[in-house]
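Convert to structure. Protein one:
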Amino acid sequence: MQTLTPHVFWAQRHGEIYLRVEISDAKNLDISIHENVLHFRGQGHGAKGENEYEFNLEFLKPVKPEVKHKSTQRQVNITVRKQERCWWGRLTMQERKPVFLAPDFDRWLDESDAELELRKEGEINKVMFESRIPKDRYLGLKKGYLFTYNLVQFLGFSWIFVNMTVRLFILGQDSFYDTFHTIADVMYFCQMLAIIEVINPALGLVRTGLIPTFIQVMGRNFVLFVIFGSLEDMQNKPVVFFVFYLWSSIEIFRYPFYMLACIGTEWKVLTWIRYTIWIPLYPLGVFAEAVAIIQSIPIFDETRFLSIRLPEALGSSLSFSYILQFYMLLMFLGMFINFRHLYKQRRRRFRTRKRKIN
């Protein structure tokens, strides 16, 4: 029995390749993918009668090694999944189409038609999925609460940012030295209110990670209340300006993003800024906090403020500056954890959007 090449017809979607091999009553099928090449071998009745048929196809782009096939009395249907959801300009690596390969017009769609089909399937699946989930009778109340919280925080940090910006343009560097006395009350309010952001994921109101949120909120409050609030000598230092300005620069984009999310709205420019601006500002903010802690260490050593009394056998007291040095190590470790969490959020967000576009 001689080995021949069967007629093969193909079509595609954004995530899959469909092949139809014109062999009836196929048997002894051996179909596999190795090094991005599909290998087909089997016996059946083709264009030239009962023979053994074989062909190989090297795909244009990477595909997953798993291959699904279903044999009927008339043909063999093969489904191959693409490694990435995208539209291919052709099927094979070689530019010249193999003689045995032709479009499957029964399943053929142009890219625009395939996108439309994809959207319809997505909408149908979304409706089916949502219909299976029991409706939350308090959903409107929760969204109203979250919207109000984010609105209040947005107004608070906007006031801080605008006030500091105006004072910087009017007073120049002189505004560095009285930032705390001008801004502290509103910053106290915003940062105390931010504790709610730790409670919300604990209660399941939002899907934000509890640990990264706890690290960020409590880290800021430590700097605000312990370093700045308890030491008058720190309140006139320029580092206060930079810490407050960096904090507010991040929040004036983060909170309106969450506000729009509460009402099911997305502004693409704001989304991009929210997931991008923190990349330089977040490490700068942590660096500014570290500078503030370093500047406070001599003050704690000199005043012995918050020092821990020790038994006479161990010494007089343990300076709070040692705790600050240990805290700085934890702070940079927390920055790494938080940065990694935020970066994963950014990748997930823009990967999802890219899938929607493709």
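Protein two, convert as well:
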Amino acid sequence: MAAPHAAVGVEEGSSETSLILSDSTTGEGKRPQFGTRFLTDPRQLFQHNAWDNVEWTEEQEASAKRKVSENNQPLPPEKQEEYDNQANEFWNVFYTIHENRFFKDRHWLFTEFPELAPQCNLNHESQLEVSDSDHSRLESLDHEPRKELLTLSHTDGDFPGSSATYRILEVGCGVGNTVFPILKTNNDPGLFVYCCDFSSTAVELVKTNPEYDPGRCFAFVHDSSDMEANYPVPKGTLDVIVLIFVLSAFHPNKMQETISRLAQLLKPGGVMLFRDYGRYDMAQLRFKKGRCLSENFYVRGDGTRVYFFTQDELHEMLTEAGLEKMQNLVDRRLQVNRGKQLTMYRVWIQCKYRRAVAQPL
């Protein structure tokens, strides 16, 4: 469906609600998660803020491909090297400016990825729209049990969280928009959460957050693309690894090695949870000439970088790392600004891959 106007200023942090996913690689069909709001009558376009599982026309697909092709002239190698060498500095500046105000807490994660709080019984149907009242409701869940958990500590032992029975690592934690909802919602006394970012500014913001509990969480500065940098946990000890809109910031040449190394940290049966930008997402189409670093890899005006994936790319990367597919879905959403009569076509990819139970380290 053609858009009345195309919006040009929305990024991942502005909308992560009401997800509808479909598996276009296996033919598994539509899988409703949050809602089932389908646009069947174009005249109702601006009746709601978002529409689920929007199919693109052939004309839209061709137009997106043309736009990407027109803007794919890469910057000079010396300029690309500059952005690569200063990547952490650009993210430090980003978090210095925005602190914890840019991205919203990702409470939708517990519907899409129940592995983050497997013992909790959330009323997912109440999460159709993420609002301040939703955040308050989640924060009040199991309030008394969490008070008791503050007296527990998993920090003694050979490594942080060594006595924990359920360990989660988030790579690229930013200021904690995934970590803190996990700590609030998952009331398992055996839980320990690790979170890292290569922005020291972001990690410091996590540690100084009043909700940071060193007895249940360990935040640390880490460049996951640096193969010489060690993680604070042994191989084969993590139950869950989370990568939410983070791998896209890595140089494409470093992605496979990064994922393969992370996969080794998983226990047999442990899962890697992934969500990131998909090919021809609105954010990709709005890049102008002079912003392309390599094919489908761009630099924003603030110096941070972003890659746009296909399902097949991610499947190949994750299986090469020795993981088994549980889920590989594309999320196509139509978001609208009813006041300005704007339409925004978003494309995200969500994956869940597991380490084989009998796989050796």
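The first helix runs from residue 58 to 70. Residues 149 and 315 are 38 Å apart (CA to CA).
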